């Protein structure tokens, strides 16, 4: 028994069941053994015969049709309609939903003129004004005073005189005050 | 068992009946052609449903419904040669629907159910002569005992193969599974039936 080759051993129960399902599923060596071994061949035939007997008995005990089927005159066949696979229906539904939700905004984007939008132009102008205010917070006439090193800015001389008169009043004015 | 399914490839069933020409005629609206198909397959479908519902009345009703649906949707059948498998598929779905509705009815107390099989009462059952009835009862009990441990799919595979005599290829179409899955269900079913039969007995002998 120890030196027995696989092709020499008889089919076990598992292999027998495998052969009942489909003997082509047996490994080639075991299939070859089945073809050559009378004992295994008989075991398989007995198993198949037992199952066939079982099926035959079930069929014998089942009833014969009592009501012959005839199509009602009103029944029609489906015409011109082919089976649409479920996945295709689902894909179409997703596409329709996508178009319904994103379609209008996509269309609006497509119809805008090329280049910056009106809003973008407004933003740009606004930030230019802000930049200018940050860089030159004082009126132009005072910028030279606030920043001595800054480049000379044309000053309105009358306004400058008024400012100095207010800061350092003239003596004549004092005299007027004394009188 | 173990047949090569060569007949399936040509469209003819094991009994030599080729449904394809009649199916093509029925698709073109020929009602007589459809009736000829019904005449050939009605006994098989009725038996198949009867095994699963255990009620002759339900089996008759469901069989009528199967053929009505088949006629309405015959245009959808892509391969006329697989008409028989397609009928079995419709029938399996109708049986499943029937069992579901029976469960719902049982929940609200309209019918009583016993496990997964619905047994008819003596009043609605066929009433054959006593010895035959006893023998039939013994056979059904034996079947129920052998298949007790099988899952729904395993039971389906076993019955389609050995009671309804479908080939593996026909089973794949009827069950909507690939060949490997069908064979796996069948193999497991056989193992469990073998185990239920016991070592001391011949291979699944039945009374």
UniProtKB/TrEMBL annotation, chain A:
Transmembrane residue ranges: 86-107
Keywords: Membrane, Transmembrane, Transmembrane helix
Protein name listed in UniProt: Zinc-finger
Annotated source species: Desulfatitalea alkaliphila
Automatic annotation (TrEMBL), chain B:
Domain RNA polymerase sigma-70 region per the UniProt entry, residue ranges: 37-103
CDD domains per UniProt: Sigma70_r4
Sorted UniProt keywords: DNA-binding, Sigma factor, Transcription, Transcription regulation
The RNA polymerase sigma factor 70 region 4 type domain, residue ranges: 141-192
SUPFAM superfamilies the UniProt entry points to: Sigma2 domain of RNA polymerase sigma factors, Sigma3 and sigma4 domains of RNA polymerase sigma factors
Biased composition (Basic and acidic residues): 1-17
InterPro entries assigned to the protein according to its UniProt record, in alphabetical order: RNA_pol_sigma-70-like, RNA_pol_sigma-70_dom, RNA_pol_sigma70_ECF_CS, RNA_pol_sigma70_r2, RNA_pol_sigma70_r4_t2, RNA_pol_sigma_r2, RNA_pol_sigma_r3/r4-like, WH-like_DNA-bd_sf
Chain spans, region Disordered: 1-22
Domain of life of the source: Bacteria
Record GO terms (molecular function): DNA binding; sigma factor activity
GO BP term, pick one: DNA-templated transcription initiation
NCBIfam families attached to this UniProt entry: sigma70-ECF
Similarity annotation: Belongs to the sigma-70 factor family. ECF subfamily.
PANTHER family hit by this protein: RNA POLYMERASE ECF-TYPE SIGMA FACTO (PTHR43133), RNA POLYMERASE SIGMA FACTOR HI_1459-RELATED (PTHR43133:SF8)
The protein's name: RNA polymerase sigma factor
Naturally occurring in which organism (per UniProt): Desulfatitalea alkaliphila
């Amino acid at each position: 028994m120890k030196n027995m080759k696989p092709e020499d051993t008889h089919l076990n129960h598992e292999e027998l069941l495998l052969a009942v399902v489909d003997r082509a599923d047996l490994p080639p060596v075991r299939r070859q053994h089945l073809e050559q071994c009378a004992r295994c061949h008989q075991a398989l035939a007995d198993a198949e015969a037992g199952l066939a007997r079982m099926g035959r008995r079930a069929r014998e005990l089942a009833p014969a049709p009592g009501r012959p089927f005839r199509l009602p005159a009103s029944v029609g066949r489906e015409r011109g309609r082919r089976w649409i696979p479920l996945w295709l229906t689902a894909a179409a539904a997703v596409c329709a939903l996508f178009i319904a939700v994103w379609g209008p905004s996509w269309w609006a984007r497509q119809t805008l003129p090329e280049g910056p939008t009106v809003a973008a132009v407004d933003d740009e102008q606004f930030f230019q004004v802000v930049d200018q205010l940050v860089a030159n917070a004082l009126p132009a006439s005072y910028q030279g005073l606030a920043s001595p090193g800054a480049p000379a800015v044309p000053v309105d001389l009358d306004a400058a005189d008024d400012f100095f008169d207010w800061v350092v009043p003239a003596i004549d004015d004092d005299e007027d005050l004394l009188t | 068992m173990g047949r090569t399914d060569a007949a399936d490839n040509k469209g003819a069933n094991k009994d030599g009946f080729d449904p394809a020409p009649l199916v093509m005629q029925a698709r073109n609206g020929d009602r007589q052609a459809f009736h000829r198909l019904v005449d050939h397959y009605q006994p098989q479908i009725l038996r198949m449903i009867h095994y699963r519902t255990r009620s002759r009345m339900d089996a008759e009703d469901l069989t009528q419904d199967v053929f009505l649906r088949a006629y309405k949707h015959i245009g959808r059948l892509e391969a006329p040669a697989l008409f028989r498998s397609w009928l079995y598929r419709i029938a399996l779905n109708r049986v499943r629907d029937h069992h579901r509705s029976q469960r719902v009815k049982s929940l609200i107390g309209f019918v009583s159910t016993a496990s997964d099989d619905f047994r008819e009462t003596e009043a609605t059952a066929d009433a054959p002569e006593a010895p035959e009835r006893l023998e039939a009862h013994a056979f059904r009990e034996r079947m129920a005992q052998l298949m007790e441990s099988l899952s729904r799919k395993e039971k389906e595979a076993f019955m389609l193969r050995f009671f309804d005599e479908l080939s593996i290829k026909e089973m794949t179409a009827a069950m909507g599974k690939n060949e490997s899955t069908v064979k796996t269900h069948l193999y497991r079913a056989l193992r469990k039936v073998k185990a239920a039969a016991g070592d001391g007995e011949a291979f699944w002998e039945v009374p």
